[in-house]
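Write out the 3D structure for:
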Amino acid sequence: MPVFQYTVKDASGQTKTGTKEAESQAVLGRQLREQGFTVKSIKAAKKKAVTTQSGKKPVRGGVKLSDLSVYCRQFSTMVDAGVSLVRCLSVLQEQATNPRLKRITSDIQAEVEAGNTLSKAMAKYPRVFNNLFIGLIKAGEVGGVLEESLQRLSHFLEKDVELRRKVKTAMTYPVIVMIVAVGIVLGLVTFIVPKFIDLFKELGVKEFPPMTLMLMNMSNMVTKGFPMRQILIGGGCFLAFLGYKMFQRTKFGKRLIDRTKLKIPVFGPLNHKIALARFSRTLGTLLVSGVPILQALETVAGTVDNDILAEAIMHARARIREGERIGVPLKKSGLFPPMIVQMIGIGEESGALDGMLTKVAEFYEGEVDAALDSLTSAIEPIMIVFLGGIVCFIVVAMFMPMVSIIQNLSGGGDDEGDSSPKKSGGE
């Protein structure tokens, strides 16, 4: 976890400074306020050079979730079969197809051979092994049930991979259609439209319909002023994307974007269900592994990937510390449906909270599947109509001046035909 340096005031008004590990500045700020401090500033502490037991710096970068899921399943199978921890790590290093994961496993093996615990060795790679991973490994080490923790973790990762795969599959078709639509439009306005415009000008067309003028302006924007105008347009798009990323990294920006993700039509409810499924699955996995409820909620707040939900979870954690039940603050937040609140309440009363959370997770994962199927079925015809509308607009915009030219030519021919008889009759 990252380390932050903080400055606070206690109840007597004295200023205190210190450093502490936390998932984010927001999480650390909530923790300090819960302890009765007034937060003055929190900033990232300067990182010290971290080295592994082999004397090398830890590997930077992450690992694909699918690779990590297979890695964890193999690990749990070998530990369950009674293979020693060092031997397991040696085999995993040989079997790993990801070069980064192979190097990380080698470093972890050296740390374990030197006497460090597995959780402490993995904690040096926060971009690969998140708080959930470390928390479950640590709980398995303390309880002497490492194989069970690894099995639960591999099951959780497999479910997470499956959920992400379904979302990506549902979004693949719309993305491909959008790319094709943009490619077709760029091709038409770059190569076809300019030739028609030159033809119309040669035929003496001076006034163009509004649709044709709009298409001509688009074509001029893409083709004229090469390459300076194109560089400016590309640079503007890049700056807009960079500005969005910088805005997303701010506290206000992250909250606004996360709130928008939950409120936008169609995709808002889907994002909400995905977050609720991840909340239930993660909390249930932590509790069944023996992680204390307060620590489990703190870990869930960091893995739910939404600041609005994370704030509600941390508020519930503060209320639980004061002796309140879990369901009451979750209900007050308005972000957790009555079914979740009631299931959690029943789980608390019956002492089977982890089982109830697993059922809630399965329910919302099924809801996500149904929503994705409905969304895919609805998006396909919409995207086809959208693409057809763009092409139709270009075709109509190009043919309207041709209709005007044909009418003018036809009108001119009629006038000549009418005047000839009159002239011969007068003679």
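The first strand starts at residue 3 and ends at 9.
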